[in-house]
Design goal:
WH-like_DNA-bd_sf, GntR_C, Four Helix Bundle (Hemerythrin (Met), subunit A), 228 residues, transcription regulation, Arc Repressor Mutant, subunit A, transcription, mainly alpha
Length: 228
């Protein structure tokens, strides 16, 4: 693999492998093997792993190194329950600043989601749907709550990758376009109900069972991935 890959490209490749379960929960991520696989320094790999750790996708323990986070059934329920409780609360504040430009911005995001769904790119779809939610939370003006929801969305991405299916991020759980229609009308009661139902549906789509770990050939895995 070319050593011209940026840290961002390496981050996306590792994240994609985790979301697509090629790197299962609990899989160790040795810096030396990843360095060899990507043809990059261990310093670059360490930065990427630290970023993934901040997003709760990876855990890093002293003397043990990094490994893919292994969300439990309890954690999965608590993360989704927290989102169900918090995200609808922010909608009245979001509507105070909602504008045509915001509507257009989020509709472009929905178009990207639908493109990823049509191309069956589960990794991109999971990331895009999470981005939709945490960018929406940022509009509330409550930076503390928005930051918390962003972290919950990152954790949800791993949870959906592990326990979910394509139905967990598809229109089966509610079309974000329909939600934007509601926001455009300024109907905060309906918007709150829609959001709660949407998140409850995502939670109910999860199949709470853990994946088995297995040996990973990092060089083979990342040399055969598309150079996207």
């Amino acid at each position: 693999m070319s050593n011209n890959l940026s840290d961002e490209a390496i981050y996306k490749k590792i994240l994609k492998s985790i979301v697509e379960r090629q790197l299962p929960p609990g899989a160790r991520l040795p810096e030396d093997k990843l360095s060899e696989a990507f043809g990059k320094s261990r310093t670059s790999i360490r930065k990427v792993l630290q970023r993934l750790a901040l997003e709760r996708i990876v855990t890093i323990a002293p003397n043990k190194g990094a490994q893919v986070n292994r969300p439990t059934e309890k954690e999965a329920k608590e993360v989704l329950d927290s989102r169900i409780m918090l995200e609808p609360i922010l909608i009245p504040d979001i509507l105070k600043v909602w504008s045509t430009s915001h509507s257009n911005h989020f509709r472009k995001m929905v178009a990207a989601e639908k493109k990823a769904e049509q191309e069956e790119d589960q990794s991109a779809l999971i990331q895009l749907t999470a981005q939709f939610h945490y960018e929406l939370a940022q509009l509330s003006g409550n930076s503390v709550m928005a930051e918390f929801i962003e972290q919950l969305c990152y954790r949800s991405s791993l949870i959906i990758a592990v326990f979910g299916s394509r139905h967990s991020v598809s229109c089966d759980c509610g079309d974000h376009d329909a939600f934007i229609d509601i926001l455009d009308k300024g109907d905060h009661d309906t918007a709150q109900k829609w959001m709660k139902h949407h998140l409850v549906h995502i939670k109910s789509s999860l199949k709470l069972a853990t994946s088995d770990d297995h040996k990973i050939n990092f060089k083979h895995l990342f040399s055969t991935m598309d150079e996207k």
